[in-house]
Amino acid sequence: MALPYNRIIIKIGSNVLTQANGMPDLDRIAHLVEQITEIKKQGKEVILVSSGAVASGRSLVTVSEKFDAVATRQLLAAVGQVKLINTYTALFGKHDLVCAQVLVTKEDFRDRQHYQNMQNCFQVLLQHHIIPIVNENDVVSVTELMFTDNDELAGLVASALNADALLILSNVDGIYNGNPKEEGTKVIEEIGHDATDLASFISTQRSQFGRGGMLTKSYMARKVAALGIAVHIANGTTQNVLTRLLDEELINTRFTPKKAASGKKKWLAHSEDSAKGVVQINEGAKQALTSPKATSLLLVGVTAIRGAFKKGDIVKLVDETEKLVGLGIAEYDSENATEHIGHKEQRPLVHYDYLFLNPDMA
Ligand SMILES: Nc1ncnc2c1ncn2[C@@H]1O[C@H](COP(=O)(O)OP(=O)(O)O)[C@@H](O)[C@H]1O
Ligand SMILES: N[C@@H](CCC(=O)OP(=O)(O)O)C(=O)O
């Protein structure tokens, strides 16, 4: 296979696994399993992030429409995840491969201890040539506790596991330079780090069973690529999509990866919700941080500090218009930092090694 990826995360979206009537598409699942088997035979590590619990539940239980939507989703996912994983177990079993179920919530990525426990679990599974199949724990993840969609989850898994590549399978050939249904639009094959106007050609329209949509998918992809992981978006309904993609024989969208970031930066990149405080910086500090030179944030460039944080907590860095510049680990507590705002010759408030810059800015 041509693309030199060793550790690959494959995200299979709801639309790829579901037929138009909302039921799971077993033929497609079987076809994807065959390709993953082929990739495994090349000695590569594969982690699957698979949606499909709700669709599988739908094939087993009919729930009256009068039931609450959240409770219905919990019920369908609780029943369906068992069927989904049994389907994968039977299909991989035919090829003498063992798979494992890993159900996670957003909380597991926020807490550094949980995060490391998860990393260790994936590590031991991969060492034993087992294919982890990850999904959100839909039974306990409801409303605001949920991931935006499984793309967000796949991005987190790719970052946590230092993957070489994240392959996102959707129901379109990639990101188009306009509405994919309109004649004359075509797939953008490469999206570089400096692409900032994605929203100008990606609509917020979602596919039938999708949750986040292409715009959220592309923001996640850019963030993950900024950490040094190649991200591809391809059409999961195409025959031999995975093997052809890895052989570079398929049109798809690739987000160019940057130089690999450290494990700490990878964790920080997805920690916006865990920030304990906000540090506002002036234009000069923003220019310095986003320049190609590795620069730490000094208190001389800070204009305001909000929220109470301790040394070691995550803080959001925002510019004078409140736009997110990055996320970092504070070297001072908020009281101490506030006392020294604007002072020169102090040690940095955020050291470069513990700073992740928003790809929109960098
Ligand atoms: N510029 C674009 N390029 C490709 N797809 C787009 C674009 N703008 C909007 N879309 C929509 O995004 C959908 C895929 O996203 P999503 O609904 O999240 O799918 P999935 O369930 O596979 O995660 C496509 O079916 C398409 O309708
Ligand atoms: N966790 C849910 C799927 C979540 C979801 O829809 O994500 P996506 O496939 O990215 O649109 C399930 O297994 O049904």
UniProtKB/TrEMBL annotation:
Question: Where, by residue number, does ATP bind?
Answer: K11
Gene Ontology BP term (one): L-proline biosynthetic process
One Pfam annotation reads AA_kinase
Domain PUA, which positions?
Answer: 277-350
Concerning InterPro entries, the annotation shows: AceGlu_kinase-like_sf (IPR036393), Asp/Glu/Uridylate_kinase (IPR001048), G5K_ProB (IPR041739), Glu/AcGlu_kinase (IPR001057), Glu_5kinase (IPR011529), Glu_5kinase/COase_Synthase (IPR005715), PUA (IPR002478), PUA-like_sf (IPR015947)
Identify one Gene Ontology CC term for this UniProt entry.
cytosol
State its location(s).
Cytoplasm
Q: What does this protein do?
A: Catalyzes the transfer of a phosphate group to glutamate to form L-glutamate 5-phosphate.
Report the EC code(s) recorded for this entry: 2.7.2.11
Binding of substrate occurs at S51, D138, N150
Q: Name one GO molecular function term.
A: ATP binding
Q: What class of enzyme is it?
A: transferase
Family matches, as CDD domains: AAK_G5K_ProB, PUA_G5K
PANTHER family recorded for this chain?
GLUTAMATE 5-KINASE (PTHR43654), ISOPENTENYL PHOSPHATE KINASE (PTHR43654:SF1)
- The signal sequence is none
Give the UniProt keywords, A-Z: Amino-acid biosynthesis, ATP-binding, Cytoplasm, Kinase, Nucleotide-binding, Proline biosynthesis, Transferase
The name under which this protein is listed is Glutamate 5-kinase
Q: Which family does it belong to?
A: Belongs to the glutamate 5-kinase family.
Pathway given in the UniProt record: Amino-acid biosynthesis; L-proline biosynthesis; L-glutamate 5-semialdehyde from L-glutamate: step 1/2
Catalytic reaction list: L-glutamate + ATP = L-glutamyl 5-phosphate + ADP
Listed HAMAP family: ProB
